[in-house]
């Protein structure tokens, strides 16, 4: 990957916006909304095992959704009634569309609920890089198509998606909130960090910008689009 990484950022003049979904693009953790409503009561015990480091996010997700008591249509309907996107997501998407700037959701979550939340807002055209699912005979099967070759057992990789955009000549703005976003933050040109991602970035010395909604992302992308660069070189240390 000869054109990726911060050292080669000067060679990449086209901005791209990638954002995590649960607790970032969406104001809620939509997966947990569904598990609270339709999941087996034991799902929180499984979540704690995941948080304690005893299983991967891939394992946690597959186990908890395995016993969910609802079909795809029912869960999508519930998402449309109870989830919403963060402020300025729509405005950022509109700006990107107008200026031919790639923008996508990058998530280790499940495609069907992400698509439902976007559809609710009339944003069906937003590309989604997530876990692809199939519903057959009351069971869900999972397909991991956005990962480093040979590491499919680890689930989707946000770092892989960031680097794939950089390979295409994009200067990547990334927004995220949790541990699964850390690998993307390590390679993105500009990181907007919310909640625990900010803590992880502090621990690793990764510069980032605080994230509350997409207004600051929009300002930064607009500035880059206008000037062809950022006055801070894309990496702003936090105090």
Would you kindly provide a written description of the structure presented here, covering whatever features stand out?
- With 239 residues, the protein is an alpha/beta fold.
- The chain has a single domain, classed as Rossmann fold (3-Layer(aba) Sandwich), CATH 3.40.50.1000.
- Helices cover 43% and strands 17% of the residues.
- The protein contains 11 helices and 7 strands.
- The protein has helices at residues 21-25, 30-38, 43-51, 57-66, 72-82, 89-98, 111-120, 158-167, 182-187, 196-204, 215-227, and strands at residues 14-19, 103-110, 128-136, 139-143, 170-176, 190-193, 209-210.
- A 7-stranded mixed sheet has the order 4-3-2-1-5-6-7.
- Strand 2, helix 7 and strand 3 form a beta-alpha-beta unit.
- Helix 3 (43-51) runs antiparallel to helix 4 (57-66) and helix 6 packs parallel to helix 11 (215-227).
- The protein is globular.
- The model is unreliable at 232-239 (pLDDT under 50).
Describe the secondary structure blueprint for this structure.
Layout: E1 14-19, H1 21-25, H2 30-38, H3 43-51, H4 57-66, H5 72-82, H6 89-98, E2 103-110, H7 111-120, E3 128-136, E4 139-143, H8 158-167, E5 170-176, H9 182-187, E6 190-193, H10 196-204, E7 209-210, H11 215-227
Helix pairs in contact: 2-5, 3-4, 5-7, 6-11
């Amino acid at each position: 990957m000869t054109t990726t990484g911060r050292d080669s950022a000067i060679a990449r003049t086209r901005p791209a916006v990638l954002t995590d979904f649960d607790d970032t693009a969406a104001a809620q953790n939509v997966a947990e909304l569904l598990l609270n409503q339709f999941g087996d009561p034991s799902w929180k015990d499984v979540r704690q095992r995941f948080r304690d480091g005893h299983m991967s996010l891939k394992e946690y997700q597959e186990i908890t959704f395995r016993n969910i008591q609802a079909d795809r249509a029912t869960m999508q309907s519930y998402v449309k009634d109870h989830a919403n996107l963060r402020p300025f997501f729509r405005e950022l998407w509109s700006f990107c569309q107008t200026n031919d700037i790639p923008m996508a959701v990058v998530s280790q979550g499940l495609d069907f609920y992400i698509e439902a939340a976007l559809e609710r807002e009339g944003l069906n055209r937003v590309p989604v890089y997530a876990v692809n699912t199939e519903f057959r005979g009351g069971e869900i099967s999972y397909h991991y198509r956005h990962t480093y070759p040979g590491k499919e057992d680890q689930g989707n990789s946000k770092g892989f998606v960031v680097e794939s955009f950089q390979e295409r000549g994009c200067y990547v703005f990334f927004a995220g909130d949790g541990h699964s976003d850390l690998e993307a933050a390590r390679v993105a040109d500009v990181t907007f960090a919310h909640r625990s991602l900010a803590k992880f970035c502090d621990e690793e010395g990764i510069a980032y910008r605080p994230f509350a909604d997409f207004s600051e992302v929009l300002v930064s992308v607009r500035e880059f689009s206008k000037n062809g660069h950022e006055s801070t070189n894309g990496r702003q240390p936090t105090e």
